């Protein structure tokens, strides 16, 4: 039975599709052959290398695909290839030949930065655009050539991504390893600035020649091993980088604790690195431009690989890298721009220059392309979605997009995250949870396998095992030996260093996650006298000491030369100062506890509260009646006497009692605060500091290191470990508790003046209570005597009616219980009247008060009032009381109360 082979059937259909596609393109070219306009384009590549062959294959495929989909275009790019042979001179010679003899309208290439330098100058002179898709050094931008087009990303665009990685893992130092040529040096200023912006210092620059031998590379690596920094950023091409990584593996620099970061120079060409070198690169991080994985890209890779194998049958395992994709897109952009330019000018003319007869070179005979400016403008404005992503030129360079962070594992690279200019480090580009410009954090990236198959993030530095001991300087002094004391053993003549600061330092070193060897070196002047602390700190800057331990005060001038760790004492400013008692008090010192606004507010409230109490008590309380002067004095006396709670006047109104209770609460707090402030002002000791500039005295008792020392963050973390535990208590008790005899002035502080800001809430409460009481009293009074405000013929104006109300207010409220209770006493002069049923005697009616009084005196209503007078009302009430007291007797007639004219 005949069986169909699926693989062969698939191959047959693919071959048939390609044949039909090729036939269709051939027919289209044949139909337009008579009308097409050839546009000469030069290609300068190293055609003997796999990279050059890959790039040329991509360029040819781009032209084939472009004109297959744009058969109606009247222009056709005609390629003229030249071999650069990998040299600068050959590349320049090839470009000169293309411009002079072929009169090309543009040049694709060259590959390297050094080759591009001279070709850019030639293109600028001949107005021929030079389009490179590989030369990425930032140094080429310095030429400021209008005809230089970089169809790839500038190396400087990746430095922010590398800096974000160092920030995420908090690496404070890094070593740059780069090739010693213009390509390697071009990125260094940009990378250094980006790292510094992320608080990472470039500790060393390792420059490796492109012609360096394995012995020279090994010697440089051994030099790096003696340093503390373990973060290395490598920027070189794979030809040299492969040798560096192989040697690093041999000398033991690919183990745990090391960090290697590759720039795009090697990450973009990982496919060209053989398996043995990849074995030496395990655990490395790399940065590469992000290429979206699309169906078009996958289809193109399949077609390219098949075509490349047909054209280069001797080359096996060829892989298409990002530069091949850039070559494809750059050719597409040039073909599109050529069509636009020719449609604008309808001519491709080179204006030849008349070379001088004495000219010894061909440079002066190069013509000028008349179509160059138009073609350049068309190129700069071209924008489309290419096979490698969005193609858009900004300032003559490909627009910078996202970068992918990869981790070398096995035979390839595994993506662990991305970096974009807008969002920084992110795990996934499509994630909506990432915060814009969030602080870099290592947790953002996917798990990384570091060199040595370690999964824990390296610290970025470590103490080399073959490095000398740290030289720790300590002050030699006679005072304050509790902090640092240097003694000499009479037998061995050796120095012994002890003290609180020394014990703290020993505990901190023990808390470090690695071993650090050190020795204490007493510091004094050559004649044996005590040296200044400034001199001792400056010795760290000079390199005499690696660090200084002691009771060294941190000052602004010292911080210029050294770095300080986290303080191991309480945070804040501490000063040791002499105590001086200021006895220059004046006669008005008692006014100082309160500010002027508080004094004025208090006085106003005393007057206001006296007025409120007078209003509420005037009609019902004899203590607040009498002549005007007496009433004013009594009111103010009552208000001010509450300050010492010595008021004798009774308060009978509930509203007045409510106001007085609130006011007494305010006065209590105010007087107590005044007393405390005045006592503190008169008795507390005044401290006169010897140093008054806080910027010069920031902290006290810390460890000082050289600027940007990697020990600083680790020692600071170890200090926190010690101070947060119980060990610090033992050290303080051992060195400071028993030996410290200086006076503790922590509680001796000078008091500050009390202001209205501290009491405005109390005054607000008292004011609201008083105003509320006044409003309630006024409402009740007006309502009780509302008939006075009614219109009547005897009182035609509202003002007269208001005056009547005021007259009523000035009178006694005889209906008040206070007057009812005391009425019998006042009339009989014998005390309370017994109104029990057995009592038949009544007070004499002659004792009643029938007289009128005017404003300021005890008064009764004016004669024109139509209502019953208070005296009549009182007599009626007395009659009712007597009637209930003796119902069996004949009730006397209510005495007639008549108005007597004075």
Please tell me about this protein's structure.
Helix 8 (214-225) crosses helix 9, helix 15 (500-511) runs antiparallel to helix 21 and helix 17 (596-617) packs parallel to helix 22 (760-784). Strands 7-6-8-9-10-16-17-18 form an eight-stranded mixed β-sheet, sandwiched between helices. 32% of the residues are buried. It starts with 5 loop residues before the first helix and ends in a 17-residue tail after the last helix. Residues 1-16, 26-33, 690-703, 740-751 and 828-902 have low confidence and may be disordered. The chain is α/β, with parallel strands linked by helices and 902 residues long. A hairpin with a 6-residue loop joins strand 20 (485-488) and strand 21. It is built from 26 helices and 27 strands. It is elongated.
Oligomeric form: single chain
Q: Which class best fits the helix and strand makeup?
A: alpha/beta
Task: Give the low-confidence spans.
Answer: 1-16, 26-33, 690-703, 740-751, 828-902
Mean pLDDT: 77
**Tally of DSSP β-strands:** 27
Spatial strand order of the main sheet: 7-6-8-9-10-16-17-18
Radius of gyration: 50 Å
Proportion of residues in extended strands: 5-15%
Number of helices: 26
N- and C-termini, Cα separation: 152 Å
Instruction: Give a short account of the largest sheet.
Output: 8 strands, mixed
Q: Level of helix content?
A: 40-55%
Overall shape: it is: elongated
